[in-house]
Design goal:
CATH topology: Rossmann fold
Bound molecules: adenosine-5'-diphosphate
Strand content: 15-25%
Order of helices and strands: EHEHHHEHEHHHEH
CATH class: Alpha Beta
Structural class: alpha/beta
Distance between the termini: 22 Å
Helix content: 40-55%
Number of strands: 5
Amino acid sequence: MATPYTSILLFGPPGIGKGTQGKMLGAIPGFFHLATGDMFRSLDKESEIGMEFARYSSKGLLVPDFLTVRLWRQHVEQLIKRELYNPEVDVLLLDGIPRSVPQAESMKEYIDPCMIVHLVCEDLSKMVRRMQKRATEQGRPDDADESVIRKRFEVYSGQTAPVLACYDKSIISDIDALGTQAEVLLRVLSAILPHLNA
Ligand code: ADP
């Protein structure tokens, strides 16, 4: 089995469009999109781990690192077993993980990041508006409350942004996240392709 898994990390603050871009890229043969937010939300809400997730996400906090990485590993193994993701041929598009330096450290042996798509935007208030819209469309309680959104941005700057320093600058591409979904997708693909052929 191909471990460490060849991966592209989708990186950026909450609401920047990692999930939107990840889903579109994941529809292209040869890419597999794995979003940890979706992984957590698909858990049985009554299960112990489902309740643990709700306890943290409702406050805008990260689920503890050990639990997150363990669940992520089990999830990937299941995807391989069910033949949904084939590490021999698919590039893993990781969305929402690693989200802290300890996660990046403990995932070192499992992933081989060939590229980091760092989505950026000058005007974060646009991201907040996107998230509030998403809250009504998708019924996400962690997006509805402005104080929770603010907390998630704080957690992003304090715990997630430092993850970038764990990787070589040469594989990080800053990409403007403003524009239509197609415009951003074009920028992302143009940035990714040279790294895949390298
Ligand atoms: P967004 O795309 O808006 O940043 P996500 O859907 O990725 O949000 O994540 C929702 C919540 O799931 C996070 O606020 C956090 O509580 C939890 N979560 C997702 N990924 C991780 C992770 N790698 N480590 C810890 N918690 C996570």
